[in-house]
Amino acid sequence: MLRVLRQHGAQSRNEIAARVGLSRTTVSEITGDLLGRGVIRVVDTDAVERVGSGRPAERLALDPASGQYMGVDFGHRRVNVLVADAAHDIIASGTSRYEESAQWPERLDAGLALIERLSNDTGVHYGALQAIGVGVPGWGDRSRADGVAEVFAERFHAAVIVDNNVRFAGLAEALHAQTDSVRDLIYLRLSDGVGGGLVVGGQLARGSNGYAGELGHVTAVPGGDQCRCGKRGCVETVASVPAILGRCRRLGVPMESLDDLKAAVDIAHPVVDEVLREAGTAVGRMLGTAAMTLNPSEIVLGGDIVEIAPALIRQVTSTVTYELSWLTDAAPVIRPALLSDESGALGAIAALFHESPLLAGYEANVTTDGGRQWP
Amino acid sequence: MLRVLRQHGAQSRNEIAARVGLSRTTVSEITGDLLGRGVIRVVDTDAVERVGSGRPAERLALDPASGQYMGVDFGHRRVNVLVADAAHDIIASGTSRYEESAQWPERLDAGLALIERLSNDTGVHYGALQAIGVGVPGWGDRSRADGVAEVFAERFHAAVIVDNNVRFAGLAEALHAQTDSVRDLIYLRLSDGVGGGLVVGGQLARGSNGYAGELGHVTAVPGGDQCRCGKRGCVETVASVPAILGRCRRLGVPMESLDDLKAAVDIAHPVVDEVLREAGTAVGRMLGTAAMTLNPSEIVLGGDIVEIAPALIRQVTSTVTYELSWLTDAAPVIRPALLSDESGALGAIAALFHESPLLAGYEANVTTDGGRQWP
């Protein structure tokens, strides 16, 4: 019952009974006991949204003071922090920026300073902090992940999990999807780099070495531009934001930022349009293969460029749709991300609510402080 | 404890204790009770394989008479049947051929006649038949799958599951893998068609509509040869056995069968070698993207051509290896299938032993006869 409340937030006794499969009478007995012990409390009634007659039902939730969960997302140029209480309400949030050239000690300092500032601003003292989820860019650098986990575990005496921040963002998208039952989803983010996250069969996929969803380094153009990974012609060399801006410049269109790109798109600049369509074709082919492999019900595209460049998205959609055209009942919904910059931190918190079936079998880097049971 | 015996076959009391996490004393008490009730029996001792001194330990197994499980694999030109007892021993097996043009009623008749013949030959009367797994070619034709399930359920009064036979073959490969712990595996079969099966995060993946692993219809050559799926240039148009034979013929090399291909490979025919390398490159690019998506620990290649055409496999291996070269610790093992023609039927039986963690959350077509509990 506590798991239901932790996972789904405030619920009426009838909703709880339906979810746990117990009778209404039994649920009332148990909630009476939990209310008496102060573990849960009545938060409101369903009067507002209630359809039909009858007495409004009380909605119960975990006592927010009984736990806090922190999500931290270190991006290339900023760190986001969210703190949620046990009722799933966000009780503090903030962002701090740093230079892209900033090294890890500096990034960590920025994150920790932000967390302290949030405490001063909101009065949240992290006294009930149960666990911290930290998203970091990149994959597989186990020693860095361990180092980050240790810093947070020592500072807050809480359990810490560390994983790729794009994967966490994909998890957040799956949890916020239009339907309750997205069991197969591909998330792709086009940003300074290109990364992804997968939900397969209702679970966040990690792969055998933690690299599942590394979609930016699929070869899109054999023999193409040199990629930072050492190969040539990766999706990232065609469809990352720097790659798109650079390609426009090489074709004679001055362009330094997403604002410049937006201005060019607004006047339907033919060269820019062509560059975006080429990028969309490369992304679409890669996603077509990934979708043929996984048969997802949703493909989610994230990153600021998604809002700016509809031509790119149209091209992705038509390429993927063609690839899956013969599977008439299998066309996935292809949609922009619902969550924006905070999705990594939200996903990190979601990963802490480990009871989600999406995380069955999930094993990220976990560091536990000796005195605390995880989770 | 019964689950351990069903899943792992004969075990000593110490092995059982280790697997279920109970003390040796408790396990002995429970096995004593089960032996008394005839549910399990002593099958042998570990004397032969025993290292070191000490009294040989008895090995216990489910009483084979307590259940039978049937796997049926309908291919394009033959049906395979395997029957296992509750101790996982194969107690009957056979194959019956039909023309590729045979329609479903004829194929079903061939399968049922084979099953009856096996009974006459072996004395197995299917009296303890608990469940039947049926593999069929192709994907997604739900009404055919339902029809096949009904025929078997009515005939044998047993629970029936029906799924794609290549997916079942992939499951069998994962279960027979070199290590116990293959949680992420891609299986690809190059045959009359090209199909695949996936294990992701320790589970057989189906996708949102049952198409996961449909790797033969990824576009390999944009604008290439017409494929039976309606698209052009699919992997199947380049790397299926008929596609390879046809391409050789078009390049002036007479070739009608895998035997002809083998003869050409044996004399290192340069045109044939080039055709095989082209096919390998197409398969390798597709598998490279699939492997970047899923980060599997193993990629398994099945189909008779795998043994005949090492040049194809070398090309697949080098293409996939290049694609994953920057993930230095993530190179998957790429290997030929361990199981041959019977793998579909073996996988179908494995799917019936539903307790395997590989099948957590697995939902195939399931038909149950009213009088019998499933599973």
How would you describe this structure to a colleague?
Two copies of one chain form a homodimer. In chain A, 47% of the residues are buried. Chain A is built from 13 helices and 14 strands. Chain A is α/β, with parallel strands linked by helices and 375 residues long. The first copy, chain A, is globular. Chain A is 40% helix and 21% strand. The first copy, chain A, has three domains: 2-62, Orthogonal Bundle (Arc Repressor Mutant, subunit A), CATH 1.10.10.10; 67-169 and 342-367, Nucleotidyltransferase, domain 5, CATH 3.30.420.40; 177-336, Nucleotidyltransferase, domain 5, CATH 3.30.420. In chain A, strands 6-5-4-7-8-14 form a six-stranded mixed β-sheet, with helices on both faces. Residues 355-361 and 367-375 of chain A have low confidence and may be disordered. The two termini of chain A are 16 Å apart. At the A-B interface, strand 10 and helix 10 of A face strand 10 and helix 10 of B.
